[in-house]
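Board notes (copied after class):
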Amino acid sequence: MVEQFTHLIIVLNAILLVVLITGIRWWQRKHGKVTEKALALILTGYFSFSSIITSLPLIKINFQVAVVVNLIFLLVFWGIGYPWIRWLYRQFNSSKQ
């Protein structure tokens, strides 16, 4: 049962990512460029949400381990992931000379 729930969560997260990317593309066409900070916040927020939701079955098994794992993931996503996404944005959107 827990395995089926985990698979369902992973599939829903993948669908959410596709919807998120489609929404960002639509926003760019409709309103212009998405800023560096906005894109980094959106993607880091998505990955944070995705990791927390995916670890829900672990909370039922061992709450303390789930909290520690989630905190580690959040620290990695926001400490390393956020600056890295901003750096990637600048690499792809810098003016070529």
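Comment from the instructor: The mean pLDDT is 88. Helices lie at 2-31, 36-54, 56-61, 63-93.
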